Amino acid sequence: MGLGRNSPTNGVYRNLRHPVRAAKWPFILWILVIGISSNVPALAQSQSAPVPGGPETPAAVPQETTDRPQLGSIGGTVVDRDGAVIANVAITLAQPGVTSKREARSDGDGHFVFADVAPGPFQLAFAASGFATLEESGVLHAGEDYVFPQIELAVGTTVDVEVTLPREQVAEDQIKVEEKQRLLGVVPNFYVSYDPKAVPLTTKLKFQLAWKTTVDPVSFGIIGIFAGIEQADNAFSGYGQGAQGYAKRYGAAYADFVSGTFIGSAILPALLKQDPRYFYKGTGSRQSRLLYAIANAVICKGDNRRWQPNYSFIIGDLAAGGISNLYYPAQNRNGAALTFENTLIAIGGGAIGNVIQEFFLRKLTPHVSGQGPAKN
Fold it and tell me: Which superfamily is assigned to 72-153 in CATH?
């Protein structure tokens, strides 16, 4: 297509080609730029300005910031197990990290409250006269009102009162136990105490124990066995043989048993205030226990619980030996020499018997009066 005379392209081209008319275009463009740029702030201001009659933009409210946690409170009501309120209860509040404890008391309605309490774990202690002390714990959150609906206190336990029985009553109870001590559940083993703190015997109990021993059916049987052995060996030949000889030997042996038991274990202990029993040791080395058992053949505990020479046992054997001269055959009596000899034999036999008691008979004796374990 050719350029027509009235085409716009041909008109612009012509103006650019003309030097005077072409110089006006930069000036006009510069005026337009200045006018537009000068109107930009006004346009921005016109856009941000409030519209008359329109809603206003609320101003920003500054937020208050703080690191201090919100405090709370702890409260409740104190009652007994029947639901009755308890007044004047001392309540202590403790919290980890807080050195000082806070205290409060319940009012006439049993209510209590701790205000301005920092959040965190806590523990309450309740104390009141006549009631057992109680502790409750929990965790208080920031701004929380922690309420215990009911704090129930139990009635306090009664104060233990030590009731001391009379010494005679205690000793009597201990003897009742000792009278059940039998070797293999059969042979009497009454004159040994397995209780190291056994109460000393009264005079009545010393005679009671002697009587119990001498009339025990097993004692009659054992004496019968010894009399039979003497019969077989024709010991104390003056008694002869046969039923009559056996009866005399049995009577003499039983008389020795009764006189020795009552004199050495009842009469003299009552007069000299000594304890006729052997006190089982059961502790320490074997050597110490062996020496203890042997020594107890010539020493004993007094009623004052102190160790002393066993005059009751020694003098009792001498007295029983002297009395036996009244009923043994004349040809078998050798006077005082035999009596002292028999006393020394009895002391040696007592030492051996104590050693057997200390190391062997405990295990063979049920219903012992002490509570310590048997030891070998």
Answer: Immunoglobulins (2.60.40.10)
Kindly state the tokens that stand for 160.
């233990």
Gap between the Cα atoms of 189 and 258, Å rounded: 16
Listed by start position, the domains of the chain span: 72-153, 167-361
In tens, the pLDDT along 212-253 reads 999 999 999 999 999 999 999 999 888 999 999 999 999 999
**Quick one: pLDDT band at residue 338, thresholds 50, 70, 90?**
low
SS3 349: helix
Average of per-residue pLDDT values in the chain: 80
Q: How far apart are CA 192 and CA 288, in angstroms?
A: 19
Instruction: Give backbone dihedrals phi and psi of 147, rounded to 5 degrees, phi first.
Output: -125, 125
Answer yes or no: are the C-beta atoms of 301 and 275 closer than 8 Å. Answer: yes
